[in-house]
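Sequence in, structure out. Go.
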Amino acid sequence: MVHIIKLRENAGLIQEAAEWFHQKWGIPLEAYAESMDMCIRNKKEIPQWYLAMVEGRIVGGLGVIENDFHDRKDLTPNVCAVYVEEEYRCRGIAGKLLNFVCRDMEEKGVDTLYLVTDHTSFYERYGWEFLCMVQGDGEPEKARMYVHRKTSIGQ
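Output:
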């Protein structure tokens, strides 16, 4: 059974979560730890971090940060670092994470989220719409920017 948790309510998992995201994305461990610590200490809407857990093990996760290293600083906040362990893919975990974060952010008064990805057609399944192309910091090619807006129907 997969449980989606808010890191802000599980501060004891910061080090483990920071190491897990660092292993998946190669972003410095300190950057994750600092962002996650801010999530716990500041009590602001951004940043936020979420984990998919199975039997006490992290099998997926994502974050919400101001900007996911791209040139469109006006398109904020950004869902980032979306990842599900390979052996847990195709089980709807990414969709659960995405729906959970959208609802949680709406409860915090944030009804529009952005996401940068190279994937096509994946995020549309979960209510995201292609918005535009953005230039990633230090990236040679542009990437796809998606938007998710609060809907009257909900998720």
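Check: The two ends are 21 Å apart (CA to CA). The first strand starts at residue 3 and ends at 6.
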